[in-house]
Amino acid sequence: MVRVLSVEDERFPIAGTFTISRGSKTEAEVITCTITESGFTGRGECVPYKRYGETMASVREAIEQARHAVEYGANRTDLLSLMPAGAARNAVDCALWDLEARTTNTAVASRLGLTSPRAIETAYTLSLGEPEAMAAQARANAMRPLLKVKIGGDNDIARIRAVTEAAPHSRIILDANEGWTDTNIAENLAAAAELRIALIEQPLPAGADQILGRIPHPVPICADESVHSAADLDGLKGLYDAVNIKLDKSGGLTAALELRDRARMLGFQVMVGCMVGTSLAMAPAVLLAQDADFVDLDGPLLLARDRSPGLIYNGSMVSPPLSALWG
């Protein structure tokens, strides 16, 4: 067996500007890992995330450090001890899943026991802005059944109200990206309940989770920045109602499957989410999300240019990946 691993930095323009409470971006910076063996090639994509101390350079270096082990036969289980959770391991892990599918002529869906993976409904994300601008975004997407709304500022109740009035028939997920505080969370939660919000992601900074155990949850609260691996879950019981699983946090599909199964066992609702990346990054997550309570895999819909071939989106429905893309 002769394996060759390669790493490539790629950039894909975002359609406009994508803004959350921590800043704005106009392009998706991704790293693609390719592993070739016996004439077959597997690919995986990751998105380095500054919030977790990752840069393009640091993630690339982490993959390079694993090169020798991977080229000499390390498998996905080996990666769990060879590399820490995070974007670098995600790219390598997903490339190995793709490679296995091609060398064995067995689709990843089949390996996961999914006999007929289905198209699933994804949220569509609205950037953070002033209430009027967010209402305009919501109005333009009011036909979508599920919207995810970025908030996390001093005027969030006005933002929430503006969006719900502009898209009255859409279910709404709020994502505060750690932007609320112990002084405004109760008021914001009450307003969210009044406006029939379906879910709120990570309202408080990771590390301030204990506050959530002392206040009512009139709307289900979902951990995002506070959960990376299955080992985190026991500490979140009684604080959160749901967990957001992202491959770039968990460090690949292998670890994400373990996280999902453990979350279900502990009674959490499951959301499968994403960073802003291409269809290659979303493809394994679509299979992970087949039984999720909430799905947020709209990354390619936010781009001005995606990979070709990419995932097939029909409105807010995203179909399982074609083999030409991944898996």
TrEMBL record:
Protein family membership: Belongs to the mandelate racemase/muconate lactonizing enzyme family.
Pfam families the record matches: MR_MLE_C (PF13378), MR_MLE_N (PF02746)
Keyword Isomerase: yes
Keywords of the record: Isomerase, Magnesium, Metal-binding
Gene3D superfamilies: Enolase-like C-terminal domain, Enolase-like, N-terminal domain
Chain segments annotated as transmembrane: none
Cofactor: binding details: Binds 1 Mg(2+) ion per subunit.
Binding residue positions for Mg(2+): 175, 201, 224
Protein name, per record: Dipeptide epimerase
InterPro entries the record matches: DgoD-like, Dipeptide_epimerase, Enolase-like_C_sf, Enolase-like_N, Enolase_C-like, Mandelate_racemase_C, Mandelate_racemase_N_dom
Domain Mandelate racemase/muconate lactonizing enzyme C-terminal: 131-222
Cofactor(s) in the UniProt record: Mg(2+)
Active site, per annotation: 150, 246
GO MF annotation terms: metal ion binding; racemase and epimerase activity, acting on amino acids and derivatives
Enzyme Commission designation: 5.1.1.-
